[in-house]
Amino acid sequence: MLAYIVRRLLYAIPILIGVNLLTFALFFVVNTPDDMARMQLGVKRVTPEAIEKWKVERGYDRPLLINSAAKGLSTVTDTIFFQKSARMFVGDFGRAEDGRDIAREIGARMGPSLAIALPTFILGLFVTVSFALTLAFFRATAFDFWGVVLCVAMMSISGLFYIIGGQFLISKVWRLVPISGYADGIDAWRFLLLPVFIGVISGIGSSTRWYRTIFLEEVNKDYVRTARAKGLPETVVFFRHVLRNALIPILTGVVVVIPLLFMGSLLTESFFGVPGLGSYTIDAINAQDFAVVRSMVFIGSVLYIVGLILTDISYTVVDPRIRFE
Amino acid sequence: MLEVTKLRLGFAAGKKMLVAVDGISFAISKGETFALLGESGCGKSATAQGIMRLLPAAGRITGGSIKLEGGELLTLAEADMRQVRGARIAMIFQEPATSLNPVLTVGVQIGEVLDRHCDLRGEPARQRMLELLRQVGIADPERRLDEYPFQFSGGMKQRVMIAIALAGEPDLLIADEPTTALDVTVQAQILDLLAQLQRERGMGMLLITHDLGVVAKMAHRIGVMYAGELVEVADREEFFTRPQHPYTQALFAALPEVSRRGMALTTIPGQVPSLAAMPAGCRFADRCAHVMPVCRESAPDWRSVAASHALRCYWSGGATATADNTPRIGLGHLIPEMAPFLDVVDLKVHFPIRRGILQRTVGQVLAVDGVSLAISAGRTLALVGESGCGKTTVGKALLQLVNTTSGSVRLGGSELVGMQGKRLRAARRHMQMVFQDPFASLNPRLRVGEIIAEGMSALGLESDGATRGRAVAALLKQVGLPDEAAGRYPHEFSGGQRQRIAIARALAVQPELLICDEPTSALDVSVQAQILNLLKKLQEELGVAYLFITHNFAVVEYLANDVAVMYLGRIVERGSAQEVLRSPKHPYTQALLSAVPVPRLDAPSAAIRLPGETPSPANPPAGCHFHPRCPQAMDVCRQRYPESTGVSATHTVNCYLVG
Amino acid sequence: MMGFQVVVLWSDMLIWLLVAAGIGVGVLVAKTPPLLAAWRRVGANRVGMASATVLLAFIAIGLLDSLHFRLQLDGKPGQKASYAIEVLSVLDVLAAPLRLRNEKTYSEPFATRLYAKETIDLPGGETLRDYPRLKHGGRHLGEREGEVAADAGMTAFRVGVLALLGWLALATAVSALVGRGDTVAVDASGWQKIWRGENAFAWNAVLLTLGLMLLIVVPLFWLAGQYHVFGTDKVGQDVLYQVLKSVRTGLIIGLVTTLVMLPMAVLLGIVAGYFRGWIDDMIQYIYTVLNSIPGVLLIAAAVLMMQVVIDTHPQWFSTAAERADLRLLALCFILGITSWTGLCRLLRGETLKLRELEYIQAAQAFGVSSWRIVVRHILPNLMHIVIIALVMDFSGLVLAEAVLSYVGIGVDPTMISFGTMINSARMELGREPVVWWSLAAAFTTMFILVLAANLFADAVRDAFDPRAA
Question: pLDDT of A270-300, one tens digit each?
């Protein structure tokens, strides 16, 4: 089992390198730093000097991969790739357009992101799994049928609608909670209520339907028939036998996103004015701040890979077949 | 004790109700084993599920009564029925691999029953579980109790299932094909165990099976089901000496066995009518050899022929041996042995096992580990062995479908191992394969004509469309299918017909050797007989040689000229069919032969029972692979693998006991 | 007679290519009974057919909007013909009244006056702050401004009756057609059979949906000639027109994206599963890397880079429409590249299972070449997964477009789409009183489109999933 986990960890390294190379190609090869400068400065004000100045300020004046002018090790290190891409491995993300250190900014913004994403995730999981379990328990009844109809309808509604509608109804018409904003510390709950609620609601449709399918697949397995032949009540059959097995495929989909919770949600945060990583990313996109977007892409991938590893570990917890291999 | 009267049940399909079981009645008393015998789709499993009231979602019980010691089960509330399930009636299923919950320990799964029905928890429950595991013959129960199902072998899982069933101390045990998924030596163990437990506890047992051999070994009384109805009920003695119903007789006559060598097997024409289109009158009428006009008008009533023997049939011709007037075919065994046409020497197929951080190869699965065999033109060699012994891999290695590790396969003088491209393709013309599962061996998206023509086009035979079409038509005729089959799709055919198509496909390139990998194991007895007849007929007409890979000794006895017995990747005994089957020398062959349940009353009682199951080919025991299970193992067996010893010119054995 | 110059945008080409491919596949399906049987099951599914009817209506709008041209400008005879810079579509011409009758700014649905007070110069030199009359909406009413409800209701009723008559004629024609199918059953006319749902094809669902659609759509468009039925937006453009234009954008995102990713996913998935070994490792590595980057971020990064390319090369595009179109296509490509991994993994897994099946081994035993096995044996048996994935992805992509455009990494801001509509309208929710109609129209239309797509996808899945059959 340990070898299994170590192997998964080692497997992450080439993937991270791949992600790094991909982002490098995307940000520096598709468009040269000159193009980016032109774009940032606006086509009218472009002069060769301005471009050069822009590049020097950001350290984009180096060669891409190999600096033939430099000597020794710095032929490799004094390049855009090493300075801008490779150094991300050690947590050096450079500076944003406004001059602030990206790494520090990220550290500060993780808190608010997590404050919304974590409760949304836990509550959402609880609601959808219980709803799906109920539907599967009452399978092939009118309740199940209308439940599925509701799910399909809910998943056909745009996520934007949930947010806009929710803000409008709950904050503007009913004035129950503030429409947007954020406060540090314990006061944050007033601001968290609505985004968390909306986050949970907007996920119900598709998740419930997916979990229900998983449950129904398990219900038709042979071992369930054995459990019934033992004379066990249907609730025991469901909670002890079906749920335990259905948890395995559910875990795969769920555990992998846990680390990504740190990233927050782009939409929710920008709508509710939460100073988290999601709104940071959106602002960077709108301001065309390449350094920030690049950093977020890399961090997102790292977190995803951590999620993959966590998934593998969680398998060993729920599935004895892997635990004892 | 259990009394089933006029039970009717069916499955809802849209607005219609398909009746799967139509008014069957039987009774089982304490300590008695009642066997429900029938081919697939006759409603025997549905009957069992009906008694447990555990039909699938679409199933409905539409009439009749089920009484357990006088108490009606069908009117019980669901909660009360749960008190019956597991406590008074328990059930074991066909597939031990999927019938246990993979994520719960064996202890939890047995404990549930104790908790629910015996009010046992904690330490007393654990003691009881240990006792149960011991009773079903699981060694080291203290450790095994906390293990998960995947850590058990197939036979052991079935023992656990039996322990679960016994935990509630039921009055009646329903065993639904309990040994069908198991190897023959393991089957013998499980059947012995069931018989012994039943004797000790005086349980009633409802045994559901399609195997006349299992019936002969286990049953006190037998009910034969056909198309949802019981057609004949008799006690053991009567059943095996005087079967009366034409269907029962046909089932017996369709069995391949040594006495029928060189004769065509009796087949039952046609197939079981579908649930949606049950004929009025006797349901067997369309396939019956003795059909009379009255049979088609009204269904016959029960009629007694002896004290414990009743049947539903108008025909009163009694028991006649129907096999007598069948034509003799398949003279393959009379062809003198010529120089081998296929010569396999020391064939090895090893698959690497990768483990650890870097996925290094840490071992080899020795699937085939030094197999030598030879087949001459027009003869049949049977390769016999239990699951996992590597016999299927041998077949694939001969065709170069898997990479051989070493050894040589010479076909008509040219070496196939290492052959590539065009030459290999040319060589493949001489050798083709018929697979086990007729449902997986035909591409559902191609027409039958295209399937059969595929080999011809791949090997560049009959290049123009018209001649190819004629060739396809000729092949279809040869395997007994109508011309228009070429334009249809596989799903329109039954299992037996599909296997005919698969045979036609293989024959399309006119091979001299046909490798048949368990071609009849997925088929019912009556259909199996049709396929065996066809294979014999083809051998006679075309002179094609067969490598017949099988675990079924009855088929071997009926068909083979030569036999090779495989155990864990190696051949342990080979010789002519007569030699190997009549005077087996290797203890494994002897045990295998004695484990086969024989559908006769005079079956030898002193059978050799092998302990344990086949070990993993990744880690075969040192010395003779068979020594851990061998009743006659000696010291030398543990150290060195025995050389092959000649018993006669054609008969060789790898065992220290010989020579 | 005004001349015009046909303009074929890249996306037009792809979408008509798709139509052609659809027809081609249809012909192929008609010739292959197993596929035909599966589609027949779809055809028998009432919900599926009802949603297909709705989808077809949307597709028709989208296709009309995909025939583009430029009008000839009035020039002196003999001069070289010059063409308007504006690229129009057939839909634009059909909806010319909607397109051209712009107001000054916001107006409510069925309003006769603007939504904002303005200073109006009175003849006497005085000024008055009031809601000014609309230039077009409800102009035919003249002074009878208060009779909007009565007028609109009456018109709707009259046209509705007309629509009903049209539907009855259509239904009669269909019944006659169905009744002609078999002459044996004299007791049941085509009408009765349709009504009782006795046909293999769910005609009753189709007709019912069609009837409902006619009853709603015909009066709506009739009234749209006199009023702004969905109101107007900030710059006074008719919201109904915007909704109609958004349909094409949604369709292209939903369809072209799958078209882009399909070949890659199918090819790589099958190759990885069938050949295994290092090829498999490579392909798995590629899709794990792509998968590792959270989708939105990858899209954001790629779109940002694409913007740079587009903005630094203005000389590539002769019209704004072309630029917006290319940006739309680029978005499809980006979405395709980021979303092929799921299908690829699915197909790889299924191929791994298939290659162990005995009919594949039988083909190998004949020495059939690997590529032939892939084409003849594996691909046809994966088709159901591809079809299911195709229809399932559509609705997700339509929803994604809205989100991405809202975030600013979607379609060109000048291109009308659900996302841009929502984006420009959502700030107005903060106004007092609220401007709700743009959002409501966009969300409702999107909901109908996506719901229809989801229901149709379910029907297709039920029909094609071998486990369901």
Answer: 888 889 999 999 888 888 888 898 899 999 9
| Closest residue to A321, CB basis, from B105, B150, B358 | B150
Phi and psi dihedrals of A29, rounded to 5?
-100, -45
Residues B77-101 have pLDDT tens digits of 999 999 999 999 999 998 888 999 9
Torsions phi, psi for B446 (to 5 deg): -110, 150
Test C359 with B424 for CB contact under 8 angstroms: no
C-beta separation of B605 from B195 below 8 A? no
For chain A positions 33-62, those within 8 Å of chain C (CB to CB) are 35-36, 38-39, 43
Residue B352 CA to residue B360 CA, distance in Å, equals 9
Which residues of chain B does A223 touch, with a Cβ-Cβ cutoff of 8 Å? 98-102
Reported as a pLDDT band with limits 50, 70 and 90, residue B651 is very high
In this prediction the pTM is 0.88
What the block records as the tokens of B638 is 């543990």
Q: CA B54, CA B25: separation in Å to the nearest integer?
A: 19
Of A18, A281, A285, the CB nearest to C289: A18
What are the beta bridge partners of residue C113?
Answer: C133
3-state secondary structure of B345: strand
Identify all chain A residues contacting C304, using CB atoms and an 8 Å cutoff.
285, 288, 290, 293
8 Å CB contact between A262 and A277: yes
Backbone angles phi, psi at A72, to 5 degrees: 60, -140
ipTM: 0.89
Query: Measured between alpha carbons, how far is B275 from B278 in angstroms, rounded to an integer?
Result: 6
The one-character DSSP state at B263 is: B
- Stretch 378-397 of chain C: residues touching chain A, C-beta under 8 Å: 395
Q: What is the pLDDT of residues C320-329, one digit of tens each?
A: 888 888 889 9
- Is residue C99 a contact partner of residue C241, using CB atoms and an 8 Å limit? yes
**Other CB atoms within 10 A of residue C23 CB:** 10
3-class secondary structure, C115: coil
**Burial degree of B77 (CB within 10 A; 0-12, 13-18, 19+):** exposed
Backbone angles phi, psi at B311, to 5 degrees: -150, 165
Write the DSSP string, C158-177: HHHHHHHHHHHHHHHHHHHH
| A153, A164, A288 ranked by CB distance to C439: nearest | A164
Q: Which chain B residues are Cβ-neighbours of A244 within 8 angstroms?
A: 101, 103-104
Please report which confidence band the pLDDT of residue C210 belongs to, taking 50, 70 and 90 as the band edges. Answer: very high
Residues of chain C neighbouring A295 (CB-CB closer than 8 A): none
Do B186 and B97 contact (CB within 8 A), yes or no? Answer: no
Would strands B380-384 and B545-550 be described as parallel, antiparallel, or unpaired? parallel
Strand partners, B573: B565, B653
Nearest to A231 among B101, B117, B355 (CB): B117
pLDDT at B331 over 60: no
Residues of chain B with Cβ-Cβ distance to C358 below 8 Å are: 435-437, 440-441
**Cα distance from N-terminal residue to C-terminal residue, chain A:** 7
Peptide bond into B482 cis (omega under 30): no
Closest residue of A to B162, CA-based?
A226
Sheet of strand C4-7, all strands in order from the earlier edge strand to the far edge: C4-7, C68-72, C83-89
Residue-wise pLDDT tens digits, B119-157: 988 899 999 999 999 989 888 899 999 999 999 988 899
For residues B531 and B537, what is the distance between their CA atoms, to the nearest angstrom?
A: 10
With an 8 Å Cβ cutoff, the interface of chain B facing chain A consists of: 52, 54, 57, 79, 82-87, 90-91, 93, 95, 98-105, 112-113, 116-117, 148, 150-151, 161, 164, 168, 355-359
Could you say which of C297, C395, C408 has the minimum Cβ distance to residue A297?
C297
